[in-house]
Amino acid sequence: MSKKITIKKVLQFIEGNAKLFGDYIDLLPQHEKEQVVYRSWICKDECMQVGYCKYCGCSVPGKLYVKESCNEGELFPDLMNSELWEEYKKEKNINLDELLH
User: What burial class does residue 29 get, using C-beta atoms within 10 Å of its C-beta: 0-12 exposed, 13-18 middle, 19+ buried?
Assistant: First the structure.
């Protein structure tokens, strides 16, 4: 994976940080907040420790808010709508309360 600056990465940087700000002021939908929490938990031992994504080189936490997954589903899929997210949580047995404690 190339870690150079591209137009796509610049647009994702803007998207991620705009959504990060939206989360900060409580405008992000609950299902997206949950997926960001899940992504940060998945990445807690690598990307979150160093402050950037090991796949694409983008900074975190902003990258966690971007709809498109940069790891092609290896770690987690693209952000989903609320219905698909609920199905995914059941399928993968994801309990957010356990992840947060």
Answer: middle
- Contact status, residue 43 vs residue 69, Cβ threshold 8 Å: no
Count of C-beta atoms within a 10 Å radius of residue 60 = 21
Dihedral sign from CA coordinates of 40, 43, 45, 47: negative
The answer to whether the peptide bond before residue 77 is cis (omega within 30 degrees of 0) is no
Q: What's the whole-model pTM score?
A: 0.92
pLDDT at 3: 74
Q: What is the mean pLDDT of each run of 10 residues along the chain (101 residues)?
A: 82 97 97 97 96 93 96 95 98 89 68
* Domain ranges within the chain, ordered by starting residue: 7-100
Find the DSSP H helices in the chain: 7-24, 30-42, 47-50, 82-92, 96-100
State residue 88's pLDDT score. Answer: 97
